[in-house]
Amino acid sequence: MVKNIYLIGFMGTGKTTIALQLGQQLEYKVTDLDQEIEKKAGMCISQIFSEFGEAGFRHLESEMIRTCLKKEQHIIACGGGAVLKQKNVDSMRKSGIILLLTARPETILGRLKNDTTRPLLNGRMNKEYLEKMLLERSGFYEYAADVIISTDDKNPEELIKEIMNFLDDNRILEPMK
Ligand code: S3P
């Protein structure tokens, strides 16, 4: 049986929302890595970026992902940059299955346009910049993913159904014989 389910994908693809609903559906615990990092650091993500820089944040992120190796039956919502480091992807692979949520730049912009909690998008919340970042990252996301689920034009209920079908069809949560 697969130990954990990791949700990866760009900012604004719905990882946190889907993790909560999938956790309820499967009766799995839910871990949101960014929230855990904030708890551990005692400050919000934007403060971590401004105090320690992106490199400092990435270090905390890798540490937090490593702690997931010990988890079982968790849905783990990862930050959008979690798969940029190979060692993080290795940890995820060892301890679970990796679901990639995707969305078009327009969809992401619609979801995040009033958001101020993502330091990488501060002052750059526009379609051109999102396209550029998505292009730079798509290889990392696709390389890490066991399955790709587009979230465009779908509500959370539809997405949960799609994910449950995938898990059932591939017998991912059944005990191994
Ligand atoms: C980041 C995504 C954020 C958070 C941080 C960096 C990224 O998480 O980890 O701001 O590099 O894409 P969400 O994807 O949950 O917004």
Write a compact overview of the structure shown.
The chain is α/β, with parallel strands linked by helices. Helix content is about 55%, strand content about 15%.
The small molecules bound here are:
shikimate-3-phosphate
Order of helices and strands: EHEHHEHEHHEH
Number of strands: 5
The portion of residues assigned to helices is 40-55%
Using the CA coordinates, give the radius of gyration.
16 Å
> Which regions have little confidence, pLDDT < 50, spanning 5+ residues?
none
The neighbouring-strand order within the major sheet is: 2-3-1-4-5
Structural class: alpha/beta
Largest sheet at a glance? 5 strands, parallel
Helix run count: 7
Query: What's the overall geometry?
Result: globular
Considering the chains and any ligands shown, give keywords for the structure.
177 residues, alpha/beta, five-stranded parallel sheet, 7 helices, 5 strands, 14% strand, binds shikimate-3-phosphate
Q: What's the helix and strand layout?
A:
Elements: E1 4-8, H1 15-26, E2 29-32, H2 33-41, H3 45-67, E3 74-77, H4 86-94, E4 96-102, H5 105-112, H6 127-144, E5 147-150, H7 156-169
Bound molecules: shikimate-3-phosphate.
Structure overview:
53% of the residues lie in helices and 14% in strands. By secondary structure, it is α/β, with parallel strands linked by helices. It has a 5-stranded parallel sheet, with helices on both faces. α1 crosses α7 (156-169) and α2 (33-41) crosses α3 (45-67). The longest helix is centred in the first third of the chain and has 23 residues, at 45-67. It is globular. The relative contact order is 0.20. Bound molecules: shikimate-3-phosphate (S3P). Shikimate-3-phosphate binds next to loops.
